[in-house]
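It is worth pausing here to work through a concrete case rather than discussing structure prediction in the abstract. The textbook approach is simple: state the sequence, then state the predicted structure, then interpret. We follow exactly that order.
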Amino acid sequence: MRAAVLTEPGAPLAVVDLEDPTPTAGEVLLQVDACGICGSDLHAADVLPLPGLVMGHELCGTVVDVGPGVEGWAPGDRAAVLSLATCGTCAACLTGRVRKCATAQMVGIERPGGYAELTTMPARDLHRLPDAVDARLGALVEPLAVALHTVQRAEIGIGDNALVLGGGPIGAAVALWLRQAGAHEVIVSDPVAHRRELSLAVGATAVIDPVAEDVASAAAARCGGAPPKHVIECVGLPGLIQHAADVAPVDGIVTVAGVCMAPDQVVPFTMMAKELDVRFAFYYTRPEFDAVIDLLARGRVDVEPLVTDEIGLDQLPDTFEALKRPSEQCKVLITP
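Step two, the predicted structure:
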């Protein structure tokens, strides 16, 4: 099979030929139908000393073969894949809180992922895709579940106002779920015009260019003069948590979803003086993952605007590097 692999930290991916994987007990062999490029992959590729690693955790595929002991799955079945390979037996797994599984392996980091034509995954971590959810939508299930979990963690109340920092894939999806959750004003701040337009297309009620406007003042103006109660950070770069604290109101709620893998600095007194509630959101639960699939199948949400490009494996190394720089892209899908 062909796959795109890490070479060395900070260097471009390389497309290589690898031996086809074979499913072991409890695993299935998947043909990767589509896989999204995640911002966390871009960050991780610059620091991970894992040459030969196949990244990619936002994937869906079609079952090609099943390993010993697998029941309920057969060749031709279609599935979206959890981004964690779980044990399936611990208390966290049994209650759907997959991120809390003590032995979980991160797909695309601790085991091969979806930047390839084929991959193996534990059968228990596949979630069946109905016919109404095509490969484009199937590859969006994972990031949409991340965004849904973020909104759940933020505990949005009906009529609450929210400011989202970052209009990339997660930020735009957070805007979508905020509106679904009953938020009144959903304001997205992003310096890229295309991302601001995309955020409006999926549910934001207003957008801010942080280069041209003071974010806190502009957000308050769009909420009738009172600053939004919620600030949700969806960028994941140094300085953004402090920025979120700076623009948050007294007694506000800051929810951090951006994955920052670099050292950062904050001024705790900013948060203390405002008595901010600062919380973090990471991954999702199985019920949230299933809820996304169900809502997509029912046509309850329009997420097509999130996909701004589709590429093949040969285009991945150059596209991957380009996405590390400021870009108008939102979600780029690989169709191996």
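Step three, interpretation. Residues 175 and 204 are 6 Å apart (CA to CA). The two ends are 10 Å apart (CA to CA).
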